[in-house]
Amino acid sequence: MENSLLLFLLWPFVTGLLLFLFPKKIPLLAQYSSLVFQIVWVLLFVWAIGPIWEELSVAGDGGGPRAFPVYFSWDWIPFLKSRFSLGLDGLNIPLLGLNVLLSLCLGFFSLNKKNLGPGYLGLFSILNGASVGSLLAADAFVFYCFWEFMLIPMYLLIGGWGSKNRVYASLKFFAFTMAGSLFMLAAILALAFQFDVASLGWHDLVATNFEFQGWGSVQGLLFLGFMLAFVVKIPVWPFHTWLPDAHTEAPTGASVILAGVLLKLGVYGIARWCLPLFPEASAAAAPTLMALGCVGIVMGAFAAWFQTDIKKMIAYSSVSHLGFMVLGLFALGVEALQGAFFQNIAHGLSTGALFLIFGIIYERTHSREISKYGGFAQEHAWLATSFILASMASIGLPGLPGFVGEFLILAGSFKTFPVYSLVALSGVLLGAIYMLGMLRRFAYGPVSELVKSHPVRVTWNEWASLVPLLLFMIYLGFGSQAILSKVEPAATQVLTYFR
Amino acid sequence: MESSFFDSSVFTLGPNELQALFPLLWLCVGLVFSTLAAGFRLGIGFTRVLSFFVFVPFVGLLAIQLGNPPVAVMGTALEMNAFTRLVGCAVGILALLVSTFVTPTRNGVLHPEWLAILVVQVLGLTLLPGARDWVSFFVYLETLAITGYVMASLDTDREKSLEAGLKYLLTGAFGSGFFLMGAALFYGLTGTLDFELIASALKSVNSGPEKFMALSAAILIISSLSFKLALFPLHMWAPDVYQASPTAMAAMLSTATKISVFGALAGIWTLTGFSNFPELKQILIGLAGLSIVAGSLLAMAQKSLRRLFAYSGIVNAGFAALALAAGPFATGSMFAYLFIYSVSVVGIFALLERFSTQLGLEPHGDLKIENLPQIGRKFQGIFVGIFAFFVFSIAGIPPLPGFFGKYLILKDLWIGQEYFSAGLLILGTLLGLGFYLKILVPLYMNQDEPTDEIPQNKRVAKLWPTALATTLCVLAAIYALGGLSRLPRWVETVEIFAR
Amino acid sequence: MESVGSPNVVQIVLGFLTLVTALSVVLSKNPVVSAVNLMATLFLTGALYIGLGHFFMGAIQILIYAGAIAVLFVFIVMLLDLKPLSLTLPGRAVSIAGGVFVSLFLGLGLSVAAFRSSFGNQGAAEVESLASIASPSVISLQFLSKYHLPFQVAGLLIFATVMGVVVLGKPKKQLDQVEGK
Amino acid sequence: MELFSGLSVTQFHVGIGVLLFCIGVSGFLIRRSGLIALMCLELMLNGVNLCLVSFSNLHRNPEGASLVLFIVLVAAAEAAVALGLFVAIFRKVGTVSLDDLRSLKG
Amino acid sequence: MKSEALRWIVFFPLIGAALNGLLIRSKNPYLSGAIGTLAAFASFFTSLIIFSQNGFSTHITDFLFTWFSTGNIKVDFALEVTAVTSVMLLVITGIGGLIHTYAVSYMSHDESPWRFFAYLNLFLAAMLTLVLSQNLVGVFLGWEGVGLCSYLLIGYWYKENKNTEAGMKAFVTNRIGDLGFLVALFIAIRDFGTLNISEILAFVSGPQAAALGSTSLLIFAAGIFWASTGKSAQIPLYVWLPDAMAGPTPVSALIHAATMVTSGVFVSLRLWPIFEGQAQLLEVILVIGLSTAWLAALIALTQRDIKKVLAYSTVSQLGFMFAALGIGAPVAAFFHVVTHACFKALLFLGAGSVIHGMHEKQDLLEMGGLQKKMPLTHGTFLVGTLAIIGFPLTSGFFSKDLILEKAFVKSPVVYFLLLGAALLTAFYMLRAYSLAFWGKPRTKEAEHAHESHWLMTVPLGILALLSVVVGFFEVPDILGGIHKFTEWVNLSWIGWTPQLGGGTAEAHHLSHLAEWLLVLFTTGGSLGIAYLSWKKFGQIQAKSAVESNPGFFTRLSENKFYVDEIYGILFLKPLAFVARTGSKIVDHSLINGALHGIKDSLNLSGNVLALFHTGGVQTYTWYLVFVAALSICVAIFSGWGVL
What we know:
The complex is a heteropentamer.
Chain A: H1 2-20, H2 27-56, E1 70-77, E2 82-87, H3 92-109, H4 118-136, H5 140-149, H6 151-161, H7 166-194, H8 202-207, H9 218-233, H10 242-249, H11 252-277, H12 279-305, H13 310-330, H14 334-365, H15 376-379, H16 381-394, H17 401-416, H18 418-443, H19 449-453, H20 460-478, H21 480-495
Helix pairs in contact in A: 1-2, 1-4, 2-3, 2-4, 3-4, 3-11, 3-14, 3-20, 4-5, 4-6, 4-11, 5-7, 6-7, 7-9, 7-10, 9-11, 10-11, 10-13, 11-12, 11-13, 11-14, 12-13, 12-18, 13-14, 13-17, 13-18, 14-16, 14-17, 14-20, 14-21, 16-18, 17-18, 17-20, 20-21
Chain C: H1 9-27, H2 31-51, H3 55-80, H4 93-116, H5 124-127, H6 131-134, H7 136-144, H8 148-169, H9 172-179
Helix pairs in contact in C: 1-2, 2-3
Chain D: H1 9-30, H2 34-59, H3 63-93
């Protein structure tokens, strides 16, 4: 268990560095090796979680909730009160799975692409390592290290392989996220050196009681410090403006990982760190954050409605959808929390698929203007069908996973904060408006000049990258219980801190 | 002293003292050889090898003595304690790194005297933190300063190098004048030039004209040393000097001087009782804050890379000054930070030299940001990656070495309850993104522009020194990172020094 | 000579002459005049040292400073054949005003610090005779004991300086001849 | 002379030293010629020396005098390097006016 | 009682959809059509078997798997058949099968018949899920699923923007309604603690419901009703249905006439015990049903597109059904659902046949005199027309009469209002019929019209037969008194007391004489109006005869009372304006503007600071003096209290 987990974490770093050394002249070599590495990584993932897979849906000792089990621990910098410890539970395993799946798909996607050389693949692999690291971390300092480190490969991926306005977008991404996380750094520092905590390990922190009497008090400030990092990453309105730019300019792979993994880390971070550590503050902040989530849902949808750029529209739809997750997190009920985590996976799959499909098209047409498209369904029926399927999943059509997530979130938050839930409902409607509006202009209608002049031949590897996502999407539409049952003990555990 | 090696009525030199002096004596031996090399006008390759011969044993000798108890050599002239030795090691390592990529000037000419001058400078740098009276302090300070003036203007073929040397000299000498006035005032106030005696005399100075005189003296000394450290607004010579001096020399001047002078200032702060006056601390924090903010802003406005890194150095000096102001307990962090920073900067300068060589610019040329796209296009490979490694490290992204340095300082500021300083540091890190990322943009983000072939086979032979230096810098940085586990010991040794 | 009590007439006159010559270093257009005035200042300072009873220091001052360094200045001024540069130019008014202003400011601060302090009343002066500190033997013994290490280092410093000056002063042609490849 | 009767010998000499220092500073700041700036530097050091000597006299302590000697030594070394630089620069640029040596800025 | 056969009712069409849509994708319309039709009929026969084996005495259930379950939300994927459901099943699969058959020929010239049949089968699967599901989330799954299929099928000919716009309008309008459904679901989760329909009904009748207060129940029922106004095209959300005629005609017949649009009535019926208790809500439903019936009928009077006439007729008839619900006569409403399904499907298919014969021309004014060219179509269309206007002994006669009778019992005012709508129906239906089949051919297409393929006419015949026969399941007492249908449907609510909804259980009966009078009055009025209409429109020879000088009312009616435009001005445009400018102002101007402001001011201040860096040594040193002097003076003077 220890070894497999550590190996699973280190593998992408090692292979990433290895990939840098591959010859630039023969991208194919790097691409295929990268694919092999990814496949091995998937196997490592299975190996790592296999032993505990069955236990996940079981509640903890004595029928109680299941605390975050730590499977690897190394006393790396004791004087910073930090242990390099990694844990696995229902909260992070689904996200890890999503990460592994997406990166495998992108491994296929990258094949035979001339411009995706060893540099790209290496950075990609390292990005995977960092995101997996922050998911696994059971120590605040370790978490922060991975969390921040993620920025570097992502920055370089957006900036190095993005489209025209990439420099602006990558800088904005980096500055925004780093500005947020520096507050978390301060909070971690305060945790370590201002309070009598044994270590920065999750269990020690959770066992510590921070006094809460308003926002100027200890717990309030610590909570705000952590939250700022997470709300920027999620991103919660009004910290969201980096996302449309980053998504728009990023290369396909980076967009997919950004939507599928990075944004989810914000949600995960809140559930893992903010809620259990600072329950009183979380409860006090819940109405505000839910309100922000609602504003995000509505404003994101509003903005998506009138975008002329397809990727930007999808990005704004992410803003809207992530508003749902914030709503779910702070409804502080097990249904809503479960919903938020399920929506994580669902949104990762659907938006990932959207970006992937559009990436395939964009590679041929080099245009993101909706107005230049039209009648794509006639040009490539399969791809258009996949696009429609992913869009439908995105707007929460029952039978596809987005519905289960949104439904649980809304139903759960309706129990505690009916008004917010009702406001958020408008997102369901607006989602249909902007998504279908885009589909109508993109896939239907007469075939446009652009589509006519750029025939799309989808290669086998692109299908290989897309089909697993679609299959998972369809499977999860009805097989939601497979994930929900694993998440439930962990989600319940988070809520035990709210007395 | 029963078994003194050299005994006379005038001074004594016990075996401990001799042993403590041994590394320095070795430097003198090295000076002899390097003078001979200069005299015989031996080529650059020979002097490089010679530099290894000089500095490697020097560092080694200091390193094996690290754990030895402190030795006062000849009374107050020099205290060889762990911190002095640490600084010596650091400076020696930097000198070694720098000598590996010393490059001939435009006409293939290099004054072979550089090694001799460098050796004398290392001597001064090593001695400075060990001085325990103003006389020795002044002599050591001038030793490193005057050799610095010569080093800055070593490229006598270029007007800019001479101009830089002259500016350095005039400003430096002017600063020395201030320093001396301060020392004189102390002398007048206390009747002694020994730190310890001054401190005990100052203990009774709490109010009245004496206090003002002590304050004035201290302010003169601090401002002149801040001048050496290039804190805003006393920084202005630094960008000029770092821009126009020979690359390797600029690397040495911008790093080693900081380590040594900061170490010395930390000593003065406690040993001469500066810490009795909270006003001085405020002045230092004020200067540090100005350096951080204004340095960042100025760095954003730069076009020349070396100027940019000079301003980055000003910002980083500000960070170190914050640690200094926090109190002696932060000295260890300050040292660790400065060392990691220095190694990274030397690596960056080596890479700049390499890049300008590859682009066919003149040696020691001033690489502009607008030249970088060509580098990115042509040489995107391991060295560009290492460049990014250094830049991100200085920017303070975990888990790169620079982050840990910064984190240590932050930690100490926090423990010392210097929240304002901690805020400044965080702000500075954020502002730093504004220019660090700007450097990477042209390197990584200009892929689609057409490439023009640059004949590089001719120059390959000359690239190995920078490659070697870079590699060594990476190793040193990673060693510093790996040496984190030893940091408590470093801190401990520094605390002995501070006592 | 008394070191405690008021300054005598000679000291006052010498002091003022020092200041006047120093001012004329700053204010004269012609660098040669400045250099000569500098020499005078250094000489007068030496006289002040002597007036304080520091004969050895006075001698060193006059011999080395006034005699060697200042002459070096005159020599260089002549060598470079510098033209007189007028002090005031329209564009420099601000910098001159700024320079004078901060100097006055600094002078004010330093003088206040110096004059308000009571170091004139410390008792050490009565205890030891002046000879015990001002004699060449005392000073040179310090160089051999307490300040031996700085003294040695200063030697290395001079050595490095010499090398540096050699490097700087070497004309380009000669360089090319020696090492040009 | 009554003006100075309130001052001790030390105070007077220290005063002269401080004033010399400040004259040097102002000269350094306002003169254009690099050589004269260098001379002003010597003035500053001279002012410091005067202070040190009078303090040494006051405290009956030889350390100040030792420092003066070191200062003289270092001033000489600095002057030597500076003059060497001036010669080199003059050979290249034809001037030692500090106003003309402004190619590095920003 | 459990039966695994139940799932196959859903699976057959699903398999058909998968075969057509994913695996075979045959361009041969007969192959694709055969798969689709077989799947539909397989479902039909499975339904029949279940119907015949079990009757309706018990609820048949089939548990498949747990869909999702957490906290107190537990959603199984489980099916359940009650009496209402089984009738609905037969309607859906039976009529669906016929329409599939019809479509084989109708779509034979299409480019991708496989896609059409895949969608159609998918629709069937969704619709069957809707009616079969044991819990409300499953119902919602079907609810949205049919919405999706409707969207896909309306926009089936997606090359034309008009069609896809209509599809999108349908989907979005339905989503507005669905929000109500979701709210109802949330209420059920929060207050009832279950989503299972039987459990909800049990809960509502139990003691906890009383403790809960009536608000929850009201909101729940209102939510469901709001959703129904969307799906079943009532005011205010009916606007999508006429546009939905952009889809192929079989789609209009199946989805937008026979099945999907009645699902609102169906769901209300399944949850009837809850509705029953909400008197105010029933009033609202009645008002809305009545107004819809009138408004749609008024608009239908002047429409020129044959499908539009039928579409508005559908809306109007749906209004009848909701009015019946509002009166408190669910069985009457449901009976009308069934009969309407038959004759409206017939009418649409007939219209499709006409359009087919007319080479895709839909304008009534361009037709004329088709009775000779298309005798079979004409005959069946006539049957459908008679059924819808309530010609004695057709199904429409019985079902409409049942509703009117209940209305009269409730209040004569309601009766007369409904009667008015029925008279309008007679007028516009005869107008359409006469314009299409009587008079002289007014265009070339009409002259060259031809009868359709037998695959189209056979279903027409069967439907015509059904349109007549179905009515006899529920015959008023005065005509013999058959109450089979009421008995069946009432079985759905066994265990629910008080027994309700049935036509026989009313508190006070009308006397036979009154009933006779009512029937005669209603029928006579309808037939009279129908005759007038036929006289007016039956002899029109040229297009221009109708087109000349429309009056105020005609113009209003032709333009659908400008409802779309009013909605646009009232809702859509303000919302779009807020969305567009709001997002622009907030995201672009405020947030990004502030960020760019910060960035620019940083850069600017950097450049300004650089100006201080003049390159002169004196400047550099000046700052040293300045800092030292300032610090010293500040330290000293502040220490002395001067500063």
